Amino acid sequence: MILSDDILNIKKILAQAEVSYETDIDLQKFSYFCSGGIAKLIVYPKNFDELRLFIEYMCSKKFEFKVIGDTSNLLFLDDLTYGVFLSLKYFSEIQYNAEAGVIRAQAGAGLPLLSRKALLWSITGFENFEGIPGTIGGGIFMNAGAYGPEIKDCLIKVYGIQSTGEPFELTTDEMQFAYRESFISKNSGKYIITHADFIARRGETQRIFDRMELLHAKRHKYQDFLYPTLGTLFAGTEIYSAIGRNDKKYTMMLKILERLWFSKKIRRERPMNKRKLNDFVCRYFGWNFDIKPFSDKTMNCLTNRGQHTDKFIEYIELLRAHLPETARLENEIIQDNLYVDQ
Question: Is the predicted pLDDT of residue 270 greater than 70, yes or no?
Fold first, then answer.
């Protein structure tokens, strides 16, 4: 929690050091999901010195702040006024050292840009990141992946700054990667990623392009692009079977319907949405929504059709009550880092 006088003092320090910032940001216009109230301050350092100055000041005053990237898996709540966010959007350089066989990429650069740069350099191993709507820093933080490969598979070392202002370096082993988590995510707020080194393996340009084109088409075919969405809601689970895993009648009906609607033996091509399956699940369990909080393509993805964020929280809790304890919420609900007007 941060107070109005604290914000004024932070702005003075930033202005003296000529560090860029914005105030009173409407998060519905700023965030990837188009949700949230107001952010009182977003800070945009352009280099490591500006970043360290900001962090050391915030640490010395014990002020709260949160690091954000593209916000593509963050759910900001509509009625909240947030305090201070740190954005590394100006940390966006990607360089290739052919002699060392290394790509060095800053945390604020997008994963799709990294993938496309690798294509231009005929570097393989980054094709699967083309359609992930997030930054390199966020991807490392959560060990992002798609269609198999994860970011840990091509990573060498991570660099950054601790919340105390001290720099750090962590190897891939030291990052302790697991499915959608890392050492840094398990110590959230203590380490801020600034850049990373990746293995640059040479490949055939056409084969890399063909793979990227295939994955790009698959992602847009099976993921919603009409409305603002967040990524996979609950990780490590097949949502439809997991919801009714202890209900034999539901499980039998689900198998029959999936075979009728989605089997390639019956249909030449899988349909691009699961609207019928979604309607079946809602009717079976008696779920009623004035406006659907999930995508037509999967119930395991939030879709913003203009409803209040309270409705998304209700839906998340509804799913959580039906899913096994092993199902982990992959989206982050931003409920802290709040602002108080004195």
Answer: no
